[in-house]
Amino acid sequence: MSFSLLYLAKKIIQEKVYSRRPTGLWTGSKVLLPTQTRLRLVPFSRLLVKAVRDRCRQESTTITALLQTIVARSIFAHIPPEFTRLACTGALSSRRWLPDFITDESMGVWVQDYEETYSRATVAPSEGFPWAEARRSRKTIQSVLKMKGKNASTSLLQFVDNFQEELCLSKVGKDRDKSFEVSNIGVLDPQTNPDLPSIKGMVFSQCASVMGNAIEVSAVTGGDGCLVLAVSWQQGVVEADLINEIVESTKQDLYSLDVA
C-alpha cells in the first residue's frame, strides 16, 4: 500500500515533534495492565434494522456513519461536561485494493483504519437528531475509500523496529489517543440454496484494545436480518455502569429513529 511523502512527514511531526493532546478529549483511563476484556451483546430485530436502514437512505447516510454518531451522542450524555471532544476510529477492508492473487476465496486480515472526531456541541444538541453529523461521517468514510488504500496508517508499520516495545510497552501509563471504535463488517446475505447450510444469527466481537480505544463497538447483520452490537472494554478502563448507560442511550436513539 502506497503513501505520500507529505503524509509520512505529517505523521513523523505528530509522533516525534508536536503531539499536543486536544483539549477536552475523553479517552477513558490511561493505558494499564493486566488486560481483562468485558463484553456486552446488544441485539436489534430485523424490522428495526430495516426501518433504520430506510431512514439512513432518506437522510443520505449509512448505518456505519449513523452508529458512530449515536455512540458519540451516548458517550457525551454520560461523561462530565468538561469533556467536549471524542476521537473515533473505524475499520474498513483493504482487500479490494490488494494484488489480484487476493481473491474472495482468500482468508486473511486486510484491514485499515480511519479517524473521525465529534464535538459535544454538534453531536449532542438539545433538540432533534444531528443527521448532519451522520452525513459528515459518511463523507469521511467515502473520502478514505476514494484513496484506495493510499496513506493508510498500516503502511507505516514497516518503519516499526520493535512492535512490542514501540507499539505496546512504551504506551503503558500514558493517555490514550482515541475514545471509541465502530467496526461494522456489514450484512451476511441469506443462503438461498436449500441444499447448503444457512447461517442466520451472527455475532462479531473483539477483545478490548489495551493501547487503543477505550470502547470497542463491533457490528454485524446476520442472515436473519438482525443486527448485533458487541460492546467490549477493558476492566478498569471504563466502568461497567457507564457502558450500561451508553448502551441504553444507543438503544433509545435507534428505537426513536424507527418511530420518527
From TrEMBL:
Q: What InterPro entries does the record tag this protein with?
A: Alcohol_O-acetyltransferase
Q: Name one GO molecular function term.
A: N-acetyltransferase activity
PANTHER family for the chain: ALCOHOL O-ACETYLTRANSFERASE 1-RELATED (PTHR28037:SF1)
Keyword set for this entry?
A: Transferase
* Top-level taxon of the source organism: Eukaryota
- Protein name, UniProt field: Alcohol acetyltransferase
